[in-house]
Amino acid sequence: MTFILDRFLSLFNGGMKAYKVQDVKREQRIGVTAKNFKELLEKGAEKLKLNPEEVTVVIEDDGTAVTDDKFFKKLPAQTVFVFLKKGETWRGAGVLIHDALSKLYCATRKNEIASQIRDLLITENAPEKIHIISQYLELLETNTSSEKRQDHEDWFEGLNKKYKTKSDVMRHSAQTRIRSYYMTAKEQIEREADKEYKQDLLDLLEEGFQKLKKSDFHSSYFDRTASEKQRMCDKQGWFRCEGPFDMDNCDRFHTINPYASKGYRQLFGLWNLDHIKISRSNSKVY
User: Fold this and answer.
1) Alpha helix (H) residue ranges in the chain
2) Residues 6+ apart with CB under 8 A from 24
C-alpha cells in the first residue's frame, strides 16, 4: 500500500521524491529530493562533501548497494542512503541486532542474550552500534500471550485507559494508519495537483474514503483476534514482511510482533509490510 501511495503522490511533482543521505559514521543525515539515481548521487555527494565518482551508495537498513535507476525507482520516499568512501563498509543496521532479536523465539535464553549484548556495549567502539543495540535491549522483555490490560500493564503505558485489550489498541492503530494515508494523499493533491485535474482527483479520493469508512478503515488488519481472512498477522500477533511489491514473498524472513512488548508496539508504528521495514516520516522510534 505504501508503494502505491508513493507512486500516486509522485504524479504531482514530476517524479521527485524526498530521501535522506548520511555518511558511514552517521554524523550527518540530510534530506534531499531526487527523481533519479544520478540526481540522488550528485546531490547527496554535494551535501556530504564527497566526490560522487568515488562513493558507493547503499541502503541503510540492510546494506544493499544501489547502482542504477531500475532498482532506485522501486524504493519509497524517505529511504535512507549511506554514502561510502573507498575502503568503508556498511552491512546494514539490521545486521547489528539480527542475531539477538531472532533468538527471542527462545525465551529461556533471554538473560543470556541480554548479557551478551551488554558485554558488546562495553567493548564496542562504534557509536552507531552502541546506539542501535541500546534501543533494542528493552525489547527483550516480552509477554506475547497476554491480551488484557491487567495482565501486561507495561505494554499499555502511555495509552488511554479506555483500551482494555491489546487488540483494541491494534485495531485503533490500523485505523490511524489508513487514515494517515488518506490525509497524506489529500494534502498532496490540494497543494500540488494541476488545477485542471484537482477536483476530479479529490472526488476520486472521496469515493475511496467512503469505502474505507464502510470497512471501518480496515481496523481488523492488525487485530490478532480477527478471522484469518481479515487480519494481516497470525493468531499470536506475528507480522511477516510480504516482500517487495514485485515479488510474492520476502526471502529475508523479516518479522515483528507488536503484542510482545511496549517497545515492539512502538517500533511497529514505523513498520511497513512491503519489505521497506521502517517508514521515516518520523525518524524517532520512541
Assistant:
1) 2-10, 37-48, 69-72, 93-102, 110-123, 127-137, 166-192, 195-214, 262-268
2) 82, 83, 84, 85, 88, 89, 90
Rounded CA gap, 174 and 186, in Å? 19
Q: Whose grid coordinates read 488545477?
A: 195
- What single-letter amino acid sits at 178? I
Q: In whole angstroms, give the CA distance from residue 219 to residue 67.
A: 39
* Other beta carbons less than 10 A from residue 193's beta carbon: 18
512491503: which residue's cell? 274
Find the length of the chain: 286
Q: How many Cβ atoms sit within 10 Å of the Cβ of residue 7? A: 14
The Cα-based distances of 93 to 7, 128, 174, 204, 234 in angstroms read 26, 9, 26, 40, 26
- Cβ atoms within 10 Å, residue 117: 18
Q: Which three cell numbers stand for residue 22?
A: 548520511
Helix 93-102 and helix 127-137, axial crossing angle in degrees, nearest 10: 30
Instruction: Quickly count helices (H) and strands (E) in the chain.
Output: 9, 6
Residues contacting 222, CB < 8 A, separation 6+? 170, 171, 173, 174, 231, 232, 233, 258
Largest Cα–Cα separation, the chain: 63
Put simply, whether the predicted model's pTM sits higher than 0.85 gets the answer no
Quick: pLDDT tens for 46-88.
999 999 999 999 998 778 899 999 999 888 888 889 999 999 9
CB contact at 8 A, 219 and 172: yes
